[in-house]
Design a protein that fits this description.
This protein has about 300 residues and is mostly beta strands. It is built from five helices and 25 strands. The protein folds into three domains: about 110 residues, no CATH class; about 90 residues, YbbR-like domain (RNA Polymerase Alpha Subunit, Chain A, domain 2, Beta Complex); about 80 residues, RNA Polymerase Alpha Subunit, Chain A, domain 2, CATH 2.170.120.30.
Length: about 300
């Protein structure tokens, strides 16, 4: 019986207290951003509430504190892409009217930030994702990779489309390539962008031409230039070898070509009396040219 009396008295006191109008508290009041969602899109999660210090009836404050049947405060953005924040001072009057009869004492934040972009549709060039393929040893891609169609029609936030200005990456999914490739590739969107952009084309034809480079070597003839009679090589019988990769299409042309190891005394290293070898001719279809030895020692009589 005593317990019931205490419970009844406590309930009566709480109910009586909640009916008073001089309470204040801080609540996270829900907000709703209102803008043209056909022409603009949020590229980051929008704030769901703002911290507001309010004063009023205990029942009303309790309801707002626990967000019971509360209507979000609408924040209207006419040109949301022109700014990334809105000053709370610009909302103070309308927020006060919206929460009436509860009185707004203050809004704890100076501004509310958001990131909303204009939706655009652009033509963007496709490019190959270099991590999605690899070449066989000594093989190279020649000429430009061909795409058909040569552009992708992409719709999405302007900032994301701007970041794709250098090209939209496509996954080739080919490894140790040693022959020409022509295949239809799926145009996919990563999980990070899936909710933000859409691509009109679902597939694209990719064509690339490759060439192999053959390993080879040649013995070099020694040719001295500007050598005084009193200067010789420490090893006059040195065997000079050149190692290289040659474009397979030029292999026959290279077969009968003779190369020289040119030693120009005028370009010697005066500090250590050495001279570096220069190979001639040097056709542009050779790669990774290496000469052994690369440097020769001079001796003076």
């Amino acid at each position: 019986m005593v317990v019931l009396c205490i419970a009844a008295a406590t309930t009566f006191w709480i109910l009586n207290a909640l009916n008073k109008d001089d309470y204040s508290t801080v609540v996270d009041y829900p907000v709703d951003f209102v803008f043209n969602q056909e022409n603009f899109v949020a590229i980051e999660n929008l704030p769901e509430s703002i911290p507001v210090e309010i004063k009023g009836n205990g029942w009303d404050l309790l309801q707002k504190y626990f967000n019971v049947n509360t209507t979000p405060y609408p924040i209207e953005l006419r040109n949301p892409s022109e700014s990334e924040f809105i000053l709370v001072s610009d909302l103070r009057r309308s927020l006060g009217e919206f929460l009436s009869p509860t009185q707004v004492l203050s809004v704890l934040d100076d501004s509310i930030t958001f990131k909303i972009d204009e939706i655009q549709t652009l033509k963007i060039k496709p490019v190959l994702d270099t991590t999605s393929f690899s070449m066989a040893k000594n093989y190279r891609i020649i000429n430009q990779v061909k795409f058909s169609p040569d552009n992708l029609t992409i719709k999405g936030p302007s900032s994301i489309l701007k970041s794709l200005a250098e090209g939209y990456p496509l996954s080739l999914k080919e490894f140790t390539i040693n022959k020409n490739i022509q295949k239809e590739v799926e145009v996919s969107v990563s999980s990070e962008l899936n909710d933000l952009i859409s691509i009109e084309e679902k597939t694209i034809n990719v064509e690339l031409e490759v060439v192999g480079f053959l390993e080879g070597n040649k013995r070099l003839k020694l040719k001295k230039i500007n050598f005084p009679k009193t200067v010789n090589l420490v090893d006059e019988e040195v065997s000079m070898m050149m190692y290289y990769l040659v474009d397979e299409r030029k292999a026959l042309e290279l077969k009968d070509m003779e190369f020289e190891a040119v030693l120009n005394y005028s370009k010697r290293n005066r500090e250590d009396s050495t001279i570096t070898i220069r190979v001639q001719p040097m056709p542009n279809y050779l790669e990774q040219v290496r000469v052994e030895p690369q440097i020769l020692k001079l001796k003076y009589e």
